[in-house]
Write a structure and sequence with these properties.
By secondary structure, the chain is mostly helical. It folds into 2 domains: 90 residues; 141 residues. 74% of the residues lie in helices and 0% in strands. The chain contains 10 helices and no strands. Helix 2 packs antiparallel against helix 3. The longest helix has 30 residues. It is globular, with a radius of gyration of 23 Å. The chain starts with a helix and ends in a 16-residue tail after the last helix. 28% of the residues are buried. The C terminus is likely disordered.
C-alpha cells in the first residue's frame, strides 16, 4: 500500500506541474506532498533498518513513532490543501488576521502533540496489554512500571484539553465568519471531536483492541483534515467588518475626458 501511495503522489506531481502554471498554490501543495511522502518512506525504512519494530519498547521507538505520526499529519495536510486549491480554494492571507492565525496555529500544534501522545499510548497498549481496566489503572500508577505504561494517562488528558480548545475555536469562527463553508466545516469539526472523545473512552473500557485503535486513528486523520481545511478557508476569506456587511454602494463612474463647449 505504501508503494502504491508513493506512485500515486508521483502521478499527482506530474499532472499538477503539467496543468498548473509556475507559482500556483496547487504546485506548492503537491510539492510538499511529495516531500512528506519521501520522508514518510524514509521513516518507515528507518523503523525496519534499526529494528524499531515488534517487541522493541525503547525510547528510540517511542520518539520514532511520534515523528512518524507528525510526518503523516503533515502529508495529509499537504494533500488536503492540494485538493482544496485545485478545487478553487483561495490562497491563505494572513494580513490583518493575527488573532485568527494564532488561535488556529495553536490548535494545530495541540493536535500534533495529541497525535504524538496517542502514538506513544498505542505503542504502550500494544506492547503491555492489560487484562482488565483495574489492572490497567494499577499499571499506570505503579512507580516501577515501564515508561510507556506510565505515559498512558497523558493522552486522554491532552485529548480533553485540545478537544475543548478546538471546540471553542470552531465556535468562535462559526460566529465570526459569514460564509457557509466555514460554518459547515466548524460543525463537522465539533462533531468529530465529540465522536473522537467518545471513541477514546470506549477504547479505554475495551482495553484498546487493535481494530479500535485503527478506528481511533482514522477519526484522528479525519479530524486533522477538517481542521486544516477550516483553517485554509477561514484564512482565505475577508473579514466581516461593518463595511462588508452592508450592501455595496454603487460608485459613480466619471469619464476620463469631459466634453468642452
Amino acid at each position: 500500500m505504501s508503494g502504491l501511495a508513493f506512485l500515486l503522489v508521483i502521478a499527482l506531481l506530474v499532472i499538477a506541474f503539467r496543468l498548473y502554471q509556475k507559482g500556483s498554490m496547487v504546485r506548492l501543495g503537491v510539492s510538499l506532498s511529495m516531500l512528506f511522502m519521501v520522508s514518510e518512506a524514509l521513516l518507515g525504512a528507518g523503523l525496519v533498518l534499526f529494528e524499531l519494530v515488534a517487541e522493541n519498547a525503547s525510547l528510540a521507538r517511542a520518539f520514532s513513532m511520534s515523528f512518524h505520526l507528525v510526518n503523516t499529519f503533515l502529508l495529509l495536510a499537504s494533500l488536503s490543501l492540494t485538493a482544496w486549491w485545485a478545487s478553487g480554494g483561495r490562497p491563505v492571507q494572513t494580513k490583518g488576521k493575527g488573532l485568527m492565525l494564532g488561535l488556529l496555529a495553536l490548535g494545530m500544534i495541540g493536535m500534533l502533540i495529541l497525535g504524538m501522545s496517542g502514538a506513544v499510548t498505542a505503542l504502550g497498549d500494544t506492547l503491555f496489554p492489560a487484562r482488565s481496566l483495574a489492572e490497567g489503572v494499577q499499571q499506570d500508577l505503579s512507580p516501577t512500571a515501564h515508561f510507556l505504561i506510565r505515559l498512558r494517562f497523558l493522552h486522554p488528558t491532552i485529548a480533553i484539553l485540545v478537544g475543548l480548545y478546538l471546540i471553542l475555536v470552531a465556535r468562535w469562527l462559526y460566529l465570526r465568519r459569514g460564509d457557509h463553508v466555514t460554518a459547515l466545516l466548524a460543525k463537522i469539526l465539533i462533531i468529530l471531536i465529540i465522536l473522537q472523545l467518545s471513541f477514546g473512552l470506549v477504547n479505554v473500557f475495551l482495553l484498546a483492541p487493535i481494530w479500535m485503535q485503527i478506528l481511533h486513528l482514522l477519526l484522528s486523520d479525519l479530524l486533522w483534515i477538517i481542521l486544516v481545511l477550516l483553517a485554509a478557508n477561514a484564512l482565505s476569506q475577508r473579514m466581516l467588518v461593518g463595511s462588508l456587511m452592508r450592501s455595496p454602494q454603487k460608485t459613480p463612474i466619471s469619464s476620463s475626458s469631459e466634453t468642452t463647449t
